[in-house]
Amino acid sequence: MSKYYSIRTKLIAFMLIATTIPLLASISMTFIQTKTALREQALEENKRLIYQASTNLNNYVDNVARASLAIYNDPTFLRNLAKLPGDYRAVAEVYTTLQTIRAAVPDVFQLYLHSFVSNQSTLITNPFPKREERKQAYSDSLHGKTGDGGSDIWVESAHMSHTYGFKAASPDDSPRTVITLHRIIRDIPSPERLGVLAIDLNMNSIVAICSRLYDPAKEQIYVVDGQNRIVYQGRTEIQSANEAGHLQQVAGSTLEDGRNLAGSARNAAGHFEQDQSMYIYQQLGSNYADWTIVKQIPNETLYARATALTWNNAMIAIAALILVIVATLFISIRITGPLKQLMRYMNQIQAGRLHVDIRLSSRDEFGVLARHFRDMMDTVNNLILREYQLELANKTNQLKALQAQINPHFLYNTLQSIGTLALQQQGKRAYTLLSSLSKMLRYSMRDQTCVTLREEAEHARLYLELQQERFGERLEVHMDFAEDTLSVQMPRMTLQPLIENYFKHGADVQPGKGYISITSRQVDKHWIVIELINNGPAIPEDKLIEIREWLQPQETESSMSSQDSAMSESIGLRNVVRRLALNAHPGMPARIEIDNLKAGGVKLQVKLYAGE
Fold first, then answer.
1. What is the pTM for the complete model shown?
2. For the CA atoms of the chain, what is the radius of gyration?
3. What is the DSSP track for 536-598?
4. Closest CA to 455 of 479, 491, 497, 480
5. Is the CB of residue 47 less than 8 Å from the CB of residue 282?
6. How many Cα atoms within 13 Å fall on the side-chain side of residue 266?
7. Which of 2, 19, 132, 358 sits a CA distance of 20 to 30 A from 321?
8. If DSSP codes are grouped into helix, strand and coil, which group holds residue 167?
């Protein structure tokens, strides 16, 4: 039996399937539900945090813008712009106003003022202010006099600080990242531009606000302007080209769509997933800085707790599977072990060892089964000793009795032929016939059930030699046995009774010359045919039908015995049929077929199994 069909294999497979599928389903459902819950929780928490941060940044920018309004709150500031640089009092008052602005905003790094009226530029930084006469502001793009359609106040995105064209106070002063609030100074209510003010702000407040929004080891935070340029990003103070390009690639279009939907309200908010990360964004809503806070949370960080929980469940599942496998193996061995032992006993019994000592001491159903099987085998052994062995002995005795039935008829005919020769005083011929008769008697008295066709053919030749002596020229004999058939085993004394039927039923009443032919041939790989043909009288049709019926292979001895009363004639043929049935190969019974020939005579064929 294949191991794939054993109870142990099926039990192990069933237990593994029954355990694995629910565990895997539970782990998968837990992981999915945990991911969903963590995602929703993270979204709500981060939206609140980013919204609060956007409010703080908005307030920060508004405070800087309100602080820059000090130039209008000082009634003498606008007049002093026209008096520079010759009026030292005006210079001092302008300086005082700028210091007021600087004091109002703690993150001011430096202030730059340019007066279009007096062509005077002023830079206030540590340790001393710097002034010089210029015909135009430092940068035409920021402080030029072109166009009046834009806003009077705006915030420049993060950039590296510079000295607005002034000489650096110290060669060691390195630039830093700043944002700049630009304001155009007008002669209110006249639209005439008197000057421009630039306030460079350190990133400290922005860093302080944004640092509370993310975990630098796992997440990233960005503050971007309306063109998606990075104002601030976590971990570094100012963006690298690769970082800015990556953010523009993965989030640029989504942020732009959100801003367009928000319109003038400038309060776009939302989230999206891309590049194995979740992005949550919130627009500030400031009138001065079109900024958007963007927080990037990688999926491995977002679902870290779900992954950890899943791994814990997986470890528990693996431990449970190992326990199930061990328990299943133990149970299967306890169940299939006695079965395998019982199968080994059965194989030994099948091999012929009927007295196997069956020992299974378990008290469960298998032990009961083994004890019942042992009792059954004891009963079978007793039946075999009492019935089967007795039946074998009866068959052996029966076979010998069948063989003995041939001898009286044969001896009578043979002795009659030899007696005739003795009366004719043909001693040499009589001696030859007596020698043939002695060989035949020795052959018939051999204690041997089966012989080869070669031996049967020789016995038939001796028998026909005696018959030719009796009939003389009135009998023609033809014998031709194929060489490849002579080694086939068959019951002893098979051919003589079949030949003898011709002399019993046809030779004495046959007018003219008699003819008998005996041949053998192999019809396929495992069967041979022995054919006997004579020119005797045909068998009547009703008798032929009756003979064909009882010539059919019989499966039981009782069925053959039931036909004995109907076969008072043809004793020799009946004996041949009985002996062929008793000695037939299992599942390969010999067959005898008989037919009348159209030209006259009878044909009889014996089909024997030649073996593998």
1. 0.51
2. 62
3. SPPPPHHHHHHHHHHHSPPSSHHHHHTTGGG-SS-HHHHHHHHHHHHTPBTTB--EEEEEE-T
4. 491
5. yes
6. 16
7. 2
8. coil
CA distance 388 to 156: 115
Distances (CA, A) of 592 to 172, 511, 547, 578: 127, 28, 10, 11
Round to whole Å and give the CA distance between 606 and 503.
Answer: 19
Long-range contacts from 305-311, C-beta under 8 angstroms, 24+ separation: 305/34, 305/38, 306/31, 306/34, 306/35, 306/38, 309/30, 309/31, 309/34, 310/27, 310/30, 310/31, 310/34
**404-426: per-residue pLDDT in tens?**
554 566 577 667 777 777 777 77
Query: How is residue 388 written in tokens?
Result: 């089967």
Owner of token pair 């970082």: 243
**Nearest Cα residue to 129 out of 82, 95, 176:** 95
8 Å CB contact between 489 and 529: no
Please answer whether residues 517 and 478 qualify as being in contact, where contact means their C-beta atoms are separated by less than 8 angstroms. Answer: yes
Measuring CA to CA, how many Å separate 245 from each of 210, 295, 310?
A: 21, 16, 36
Quote the CA–CA distance of 114 and 195 in Å, as a whole number. Answer: 5
State the Cα angle at 211 between 208 and 217, rounded to 5°. Answer: 150
Query: Computed from CA positions of residues 316, 318, 321, 327, in that sequence, does the dihedral angle turn out positive or negative?
Result: negative
Structure tokens at 393: 């002995």
pLDDT digits (tens, 9 = 90+) for 372-394: 777 787 787 777 777 665 565 56
Paired tokens of 18: 């029954």
Full DSSP string of 400-455: HHHHHHHHHHHHHHHHHHHHHHHHTT-HHHHHHHHHHHHHHHHHHT-S-SEEEHHH
Q: Can you say whether the dihedral through the CA atoms of 326, 329, 335, 340 is positive or negative?
A: negative
CB 283 within 8 A of CB 292: yes
**Residue 105 · residue 69 · CB < 8 Å:** no
First to last CA, the chain: 27
* Two tokens, residue 456: 């049967």
Does an H or E element contain 132, and which? strand 129-133
Nearest to 302 by CA among 223, 384, 219: 219
Rounded to an integer, the average pLDDT of 96-120 is 86
Structure tokens at 194: 């008197």
Tell me if 201 sits within 8 A of 64, measured CB to CB: yes
Tell the residue number behind the tokens 């002093």, with chain if given.
80
Q: Encode pLDDT of 181-202 as tens digits.
A: 999 888 887 888 888 999 999 8
Measure the CA–CA gap between 351 and 370, rounded to whole angstroms. 19
